[in-house]
Amino acid sequence: MMGRIYIALLHYPVLDRNGSVITSAVTNADIHDIARSARTYGVRRFFIVTPIAEQADLVRKIIGHWTRGAGGALNPSRREALEAVQVAGTLDEIIQSIDREESGPVKTVATGARLKDSSVSHGHLSQLMDKDGGAFLLIFGTGWGLAGEVVEHSRYRLEPIHGSGSYNHLSVRSAVAVTLDRLAGRKEGVR
Amino acid sequence: MMGRIYIALLHYPVLDRNGSVITSAVTNADIHDIARSARTYGVRRFFIVTPIAEQADLVRKIIGHWTRGAGGALNPSRREALEAVQVAGTLDEIIQSIDREESGPVKTVATGARLKDSSVSHGHLSQLMDKDGGAFLLIFGTGWGLAGEVVEHSRYRLEPIHGSGSYNHLSVRSAVAVTLDRLAGRKEGVR
Q1: Distance from CA of B61 to the nearest CA of A (A)
Q2: Distance CA B1, CA B187 (A)
Q3: CB within 8 Å of A43: residues ≥ 6 apart
Q4: pLDDT at A189
Q5: Residue A73: burial class (beta carbons within 10 Å; 0-12, 13-18, 19+)
Q6: Does residue B160 sit in helix, strand or coil?
Q7: Contact A109, A137 (CB under 8 A)
Q8: Which residues of chain A are under the pLDDT cut of 50?
Q9: pLDDT (mean) for B90-116
């Protein structure tokens, strides 16, 4: 049985271009794109993490528009995607919530284009998920990536996505889509 | 030798939710996300196709800001990505331009979440590109997907991206990233 995947998109603590820890602003395209990718690849829940109450309220309003409001009536597939989105104030809050829901503790997986000393490749993580059958939380950072403390406290550090060369500056929306496809995409006969 | 990949993002002729042929509006997030994915996966050029002169001018202004203006100085990796973006009025114009540049005619590949009777899987296309060594143009639609005439005139119809179930409503930004990763991503030992 495939492990159960959860996603967290962190707006704090993340880095800015100089490596300082900041709180980033929530982006509308992140909510929609990642919700649609999450739904496509069978993710259990997509958590948007921000400690700023006004930003959390804004996200709840957007989700409400598409799940209970006019948007959902117009676009049922968008409603379906946004139904799995949830707002949280901190990463710890999410981990506790998943732990309560699942039989065992969730395994956290830090991601990032600049992660050094990664502990697991996409292929290896996919195998682990198959074997383990438990819950895995993939943690994605906004801004210039996850703060060191998040990476250090994660159970696994996922290998950065490699394209065809040394350039890897995917948007977080694209990185989530590619990561989910590598972990949970239906494999064709020939890859 | 790997075939050379070009990308076209069409804003005409594409479908609306009712299946009528329309011209869609250019989206800022499409330009940036797809340019970054294209650069990451070694795409030769990313063409944005719109027949509307005002929209084409807007895209040129955005590209200029990031390649020659203040944006590029602030963010060199964004500049590098946007340097490969080009605006065109029609798909035919692009095909002729690539044909002139390449030794042989470019092979066109229609993509779409609802493509029926696909002629090639991602794995198969990847093999074809390796063997052929020529130029391939991946055509992506905005709105509700490519109009029938584009699909019919394409050399190949790429199999839709399958997630883990029947839902597949990825954003075009995510679909481009996943498609490029499947075709040109550096393969790990275990997938």
Answers
A1: 21
A2: 15
A3: A5, A6, A7, A37, A84, A180, A184
A4: 43
A5: exposed
A6: coil
A7: yes
A8: 1, 189-191
A9: 94
pLDDT in tens, B15-68: 999 999 999 999 999 999 999 999 999 999 999 999 999 999 999 999 999 999
- In whole angstroms, give the CA distance from residue B32 to residue B63: 9
Which chain A residues are Cβ-neighbours of B190 within 8 angstroms? 121, 123-124, 126-127
Distance between B129 CA and the closest CA of chain A, angstroms: 13
Report how far Cα A148 is from the mean position of its chain's Cα atoms: 17
| Apex B146 CA angle, B140 and B150, nearest 5 | 95
- Contacts with A, B 50-79, CB within 8 Å: 77-78
Six-digit token string for B59: 């895209």
CB contact under 8 A, B178 and A178: yes
Intra-chain end-to-end CA distance of chain B, in Å: 22
Question: What ipTM, to 2 d.p.?
Answer: 0.94
Q: What are the chain A neighbours of B170 within 8 Å (beta carbons)?
A: 36-37, 40, 177
Whole-angstrom distance, CA of residue B38 vs CA of residue B91: 18
Q: Which helix (H) or strand (E) holds A128?
A: helix A122-132
Q: Which helix (H) or strand (E) holds A29?
A: helix A28-40
Residue of B179, B175, B139 lying closest to B157 (CA atoms):
B139
A175 contact residues in B (CB cutoff 8 A)? 177
